[in-house]
Amino acid sequence: MPDIAAVPPLPEFEDRRTGLMVFGIIVIVLGCLIALMLPLMLVGQLMAGHVPGAAPLPLRLMLPAVFMYLGLAVLFIWLGIGSVLCRRWARALLLVFAWLWLLGGLAGVGMAAFVLPQIFDQPQPGLPPLPPAARILITVFTLATCLVIYVIIPAVLVCFYRSRHVQATCAARDPVPRWTDACPLPVLAISLMLGGGAACMPLLMGVYHSIVPFFGCYLSGGTGTAVLLVTTAAYAWAARATYRLNVAGWWVAFLGFGLWMLSSGLTFARDGLLPMYELMEFPPAMLDRMRQMGFLQSPAMVVLPLVCWLPFLGYLIYLKKFFKPRS
């Protein structure tokens, strides 16, 4: 296991305890707001059952969203409390999470800017087409909302928690070495991502019937399950190995992600996205709506995810400098 050395506080720094408390409370409030999404989902499903032409999602397909909101709510509240207490592990994890939130948000906003006009171009059954002014207004409002939630808020968190004064304040008020001190924060980010992916894989296997895009075809059943189980084991091992700065863990993460990206790109280019949702047994009404949205089968929907994944591959290449071969 890598040595956990205490990080001495800076000789001179401005105490940011008040800021840590204020931002911690804000993070706790965000966690409570995320928790409210659970009853809102339930209300939305109940209302969908009374709308003509609409059908509520099966419980199976709702489970990933339920666990995601529940997990995020607990994570935000836990990290917010840690920030209020000026814990160094909370500052490190909040900085890592805010960076992931920001980078993922930038990719998501870019995809939304491409997808929204495509959706408006599709006719809505039983409804007149939206006037151009209304389309522009809805698009701008939606993108502005996404920009605030997925870009501005995490950017503010990054700016605050990366401050050397915040780091020194946490080091001074929490002098005990923590597990987050065992490896550089950029490496800790990829380790947590690998561990989170391994933890979520069994749920996704059950919900989505172990459908795997595999170099030009979709695997399912026992074959798909076997591939996903191997992937889960590899992710879990790589999460621990990267945390310990074992270069073999980096290679597993880099090659695994590169092969997964290549496999998905070839499959999406050959068959499109719609067959994947059909194999996952999405509701017929939702599948019909997807068929009407012809852009799901367009080449752009293949290229766009690849463009979003390439920066992550570059990030893995950047991390290589933190790993040294084992003697």
Structural summary, described in words:
There is one protein chain. With 327 residues, this protein is mostly helical. The protein has a domain at 183-327. Helices cover 72% and strands 2% of the residues. It has 12 helices and 2 strands. The protein has helices at 17-35, 37-48, 59-84, 88-120, 132-161, 164-173, 185-207, 221-243, 247-271, 274-279, 284-292, 300-319; strands spanning 212-214, 217-219. Strands 1-2 form a two-stranded antiparallel ribbon. A hairpin with a 2-residue loop joins β1 (212-214) and β2 (217-219). α3 runs antiparallel to α4, α4 packs across α7 and α7 (185-207) packs antiparallel against α8 (221-243). The longest helix is centred in the N-terminal third of the chain and has 33 residues, at 88-120. It is globular, with a radius of gyration of 22 Å. The protein starts with 16 loop residues before the first helix and ends in an 8-residue tail after the last helix. The relative contact order is 0.11. The model is unreliable at 1-7 (pLDDT under 50).
Summarize the model shown.
The protein has 327 residues and is mostly helical. The chain contains 12 helices and 2 strands. A two-stranded antiparallel ribbon has the order 1-2.
Topology:
Elements: H1 17-35, H2 37-48, H3 59-84, H4 88-120, H5 132-161, H6 164-173, H7 185-207, E1 212-214, E2 217-219, H8 221-243, H9 247-271, H10 274-279, H11 284-292, H12 300-319
Antiparallel strand pairs: 1-2
Helix pairs in contact: 1-3, 3-4, 4-5, 4-7, 7-8, 8-9, 9-12
